[in-house]
């Protein structure tokens, strides 16, 4: 994703945001490249493991381990949501 100059510049323009949450298909290609690029730019990156996929589960699993070893945080969708909401009393909880 950050291979596109205009996208990279757009992301860099958000100087106050230093955290990214990634999910999607082709974990071993698109998610990996984007995650590694964001880590290089100094972002804290969270990869939603139960919202990622690859054609091959082997490719997906190896990529997730690589991203973790590179400094990304692996999390589940539900844990990310609870981290963002902080409490069940949040109006968006349900």
Walk me through the structure:
The structure is a single chain. With 94 residues, this protein is of the alpha/beta class. The chain has a single domain, classed as Isochorismatase-like (Rossmann fold, 3-Layer(aba) Sandwich), CATH 3.40.50. The protein contains 4 helices and 3 strands, in the order H-E-H-E-H-E-H. The protein has helices spanning 5-12, 27-40, 57-70, 77-85; strands at residues 19-24, 44-52, 73-75. It has a 3-stranded parallel beta sheet. Strand 1, helix 2 and strand 2 (44-52) form a beta-alpha-beta unit. Helix 2 packs parallel to helix 3 (57-70). It is globular.
Topology:
Blueprint lengths: L4 H8 L6 E6 L2 H14 L3 E9 L4 H14 L2 E3 L1 H9 L9
Helix pairs in contact: 2-3
